[in-house]
Amino acid sequence: MTEHRGAKARARILESGLKLFHLKGIQATSVDEILEDSGTGKSQFYHYFKNKDGLVHSVLSHFYQRLKSGQGSLETNIKTWEDLESWFGFFVNFQKAVGCRMSCPIGTIGNDLTADQELLRQDVRLIFDFIRHRLIEFFATLKGQGKIPSSVKPEELADFCICIMQGGLLVGKIRREVEPFENSVAHALSYLKGLDTRPDQRKAKRIAR
To answer: Distance between CA 140 and CA 142 in Å, rounded?
Structure first.
């Protein structure tokens, strides 16, 4: 029973840590604020995390495991253009829901890291690399099927998508309006779908007939 209560306390601290790090950044969030928000005590905190960096690491690791297992709210299994639209739409809708007061939780944490927090930077990169790999898989599949030009590099398209997502969230937060993000996504999707060679192939077949 004690172990179960301890696990629940740890989970509450992780939840509060992610929420407050997302809202305020890690530097502006104190351990005391996390304890107050989670309804836990210092003895519980230091038993599980030792220090604040330990909590940040655990928050990022927990986020990563949920992302990998598909338990998070973000769908990363991208197989079609519609899936990619939904992927972008998830972030746009999130920012609308929070009134453009927040950007990406992992981007916010990563931006707040100092030069001596290299291990935490690696935790952040692991999450972005996972998402990037899923996008690479999608574009590589299209390329292998001859649906986008052979000269296209899936890695570059994946980086393009991530930069549009991260930049759009940041600009939306700064300007407190989602329209710049929506416009950027619309142009990005128009460009990416324009790489699809199938419409030209179908047109050429109709002409040939």
So the answer is: 5
